[in-house]
Amino acid sequence: MSRVSDLTDFKDDPYLTVLRPLVEAYLAVWREGSRHVRRLHLTPSQFDVIVTLGDTGGMTCSDLSAATLVTKGTLTGVVDRLVEKGLIRRETIPGDRRAIRICLTERGETLFQKCFPAQAAFLRPFFQRALTERDAAELCRLLRQIRDSFDHSNAE
After folding, report:
1. How far is CA 141 from the centre of its chain?
2. Region of poorest pLDDT, from 24-33, 113-122, 135-144, 146-155
3. What's this model's pTM, rounded to 2 decimal places?
4. Reduced DSSP (H G I as helix, E B as strand, rest coil) percent helix, strand, coil of the chain, to 5
5. Percent residues over pLDDT 90 in the chain
6. Rounded distance, CA 97 to CA 113, Å?
7. Would you state the pLDDT for residue 2?
């Protein structure tokens, strides 16, 4: 068993020093974004589902789960509450009675058209203050590279 004193000093590790600022940036975006979404009378998970379904013909629960940041265990409750609010509906898929498609209702589509641009307009200035367009493109590329590195390690 290794002791802490035997471990490499990680504070100067060029790869691990990125972890704290990455998490801090994520939390800052989450905190401010969630605050704004709640003003729209939605939870962050509800907003995620509505935005993901916007401008689509609907998705199966499996596709919706893969496309959102909502965990599979939480998704059913989120969908149930959005159905109760009249923002989404469940439809059977012709030819496959076991499969269900989740779609925005007309009211849900109207909310999507209102809330998505509002959230984008709210968050954009935070990124504009910190990044040039070129920086943003490079950061996006690097973040995907990190994400894909974790996906690759799970496949091994």
Report:
1. 17
2. 146-155
3. 0.80
4. 70, 10, 20
5. 68
6. 31
7. 52
Task: Check residue 55 and give left, alpha or beta (phi > 0: left; psi -120 to 50: alpha).
Answer: left
DSSP letter at 86? T
Q: Report the CATH fold assignment for 10-155.
A: Arc Repressor Mutant, subunit A (1.10.10)
Sign of CA pseudo-dihedral 103, 105, 107, 113: positive
Burial 139-151 (b: 16+ CB within 10 A, else e): eeeeeeeeeeeee
E strand spans, the chain: 59-60, 88-93, 96-104
Residue extents of the structural domains in the chain: 10-155
Distance CA 75, CA 64 (A): 9
Q: Angle at Cα 47 formed by Cα 38 and Cα 115, nearest 5°? A: 75
pLDDT band of residue 14 (cuts 50, 70, 90) is confident
